[in-house]
UniProtKB/TrEMBL annotation:
UniProt cofactor(s): pyridoxal 5'-phosphate
The name this protein goes by in its record: Glutamate-1-semialdehyde 2,1-aminomutase
Species: Deinococcus gobiensis (strain DSM 21396 / JCM 16679 / CGMCC 1.7299 / I-0)
One Pfam family this sequence matches: Aminotran_3
Biochemical pathway: Porphyrin-containing compound metabolism; protoporphyrin-IX biosynthesis; 5-aminolevulinate from L-glutamyl-tRNA(Glu): step 2/2
Residue intervals passing through the bilayer: none
Length: 422
């Protein structure tokens, strides 16, 4: 009925084997499948569920909105409220809501092209920005996991004409010299440089300060700097990676947490650029369900709860740090090579013998032992821990993860490392 049995490829267990669990319900830090088996959830719907599943404030906000109708196709108060909140938290001067992260990045790039009058965009190998044609070039996890060959040449999906892909230039993440060189040669043709400020989609990759400085230099060439905070936005801080790392992008894209588990994306930033968006400006972008009142209510409740609990980010950081340290210790005890990358509540345990923190680009991540990961994943699942079913994904922790889940996870991890051939 559905190709591959899933509605998004990373949900399939292609790289780890076996059958995806069908989830019947979710509460707090747990998923329950159709057979009644419960799992500690480290996917968090691939990012949005930072407060945990079925959070009372979010449920009540959605229920409250439901009584007034599900979609208007006309302006409504909640979208203004959420725009004001996002503006206040992030410093973006204008915000436009869409219905997914893909729409956000696709629209931001069209806007950058409209604003600059240039054709080319520049992205980084292993960064994923959604599945718009021009962005499916060297595009990270889903493609690293499912395309068969690691490091597949551009374009990384069938159905993307080479002519589209040719407008997307690719540079290496964390390589400031390569970025500077490309900008020196082609900068005058480049409309936008888009990047994941902390990469989640090749596994977690952490930007170096030198790379971040080089990213900001692209502005001097007249390119629009676009931070794709679809994953990191409101996760790494109330102002995402931008707040955490002190970035100054021209435009930012959001998704996931901004919709509190309902379909929402957004893009925003400098008014001078955003005012090119229709109907104010000449760059067309629209959406039947954009600003949907239920989705706006879920987003408002989620961001409101995050703002009301500033210590949450510290708790997430402490939990995830302990998780990372515990994994490294258990792996070491079992003689399994493991290299953990972590920022706040995002973490990837790369199955490889690399010094701590040295996995810093796509090629490094691709050196991981995906077979060992797959075997480890299966034992974790059998023991009730739902890790991301790909070596090249971040896992996400949330407000509902407590010491109980941490201990249970590390118990399962001990067994899973121990079960690997030494
Ligand atoms: N950008 C980043 C950094 C993402 O991680 C994702 C999805 O995982 C997207 C864009 C696309 O968002 P969506 O799946 O909502 O279209």
């Amino acid at each position: 009925m559905t190709p591959g049995g899933v509605n998004s490829p990373v949900r399939a267990f292609r790289s780890v084997g076996g059958t995806p669990r069908f989830i019947a319900s979710a509460r707090g830090a747990y998923l329950t499948d159709a057979d009644g088996q419960t799992y500690i959830d480290y996917i968090g719907s691939w990012g949005p569920m930072i407060l945990g599943h079925d959070h009372p404030a979010v449920r009540e906000a959605i229920a409250g909105a439901l009584g007034s109708g599900t979609s208007f196709g006309a302006p409504n108060a909640r979208e203004v409220e959420l725009a004001e909140l996002v503006t206040r938290l992030t410093g973006a001067e204008r915000v436009r809501f869409v219905s997914s992260g893909t729409e956000a990045t696709m629209s931001a790039l069209r806007l950058a092209r409209g604003f600059t009058g240039r054709k080319y965009i520049l992205k980084f190998r292993g960064n994923y920005h959604g599945h718009a044609d021009g962005l499916l070039v060297e595009a990270g996890s889903g493609l690293m996991t499912n395309a068969g060959e690691l490091g597949a040449a551009a374009p990384s999906s069938a159905g993307v004409p080479e002519e589209y892909a040719a407008l997307t230039l690719v540079s290496e993440y964390n390589d400031p010299a390569a970025l500077d060189a490309l900008m020196a040669e082609r900068g005058h043709e480049i409309a936008a440089v888009i990047f994941e400020p902390v990469v989640g989609n090749a596994g977690v990759l952490i930007p170096t300060p030198e790379f971040l400085t080089a990213l900001h230099r692209v502005k001097a060439a007249g390119a629009v700097l676009i931070a794709d905070e679809v994953m990191t936005g409101f996760r790494l801080s109330l102002n995402g990676a931008t707040g955490l790392l002190g970035l100054s992008p021209d435009l930012t894209c959001w998704g996931k947490i901004i919709g509190g588990g309902l379909p929402v994306g957004a893009y925003g930033g400098r008014a001078e650029i955003m005012d090119y968006v229709s109907p104010q400006g000449p760059v067309y972008q629209a959406g039947t369900l954009s600003g949907n009142p239920l989705a706006m209510a879920a987003g408002l409740a989620t961001l409101g709860a995050l703002e009301a609990d500033p210590d949450l980010y510290l708790r997430l950081d402490a939990y995830t740090a302990a998780l990372g340290e515990g994994l490294v210790n258990e792996a070491q005890a079992a003689g399994v090579p493991l290299s953990v990358n972590r920022v706040g509540s995002m973490l990837t345990a790369f199955f490889q013998d690399a010094p701590h923190g040295s996995v810093c680009n796509y090629a490094d991540a691709a050196r991981s032992d995906t077979r060992a990961f797959a075997a480890w994943f299966q034992t974790m699942l059998a023991r009730g821990v739902y890790w991301a079913p790909s070596q090249f994904e971040s896992i996400f922790t949330g407000a509902a993860h407590t010491d109980t889940e941490l201990n249970a996870t590390l118990d399962a991890a001990r067994a899973a490392f121990g079960a690997l051939p030494g």
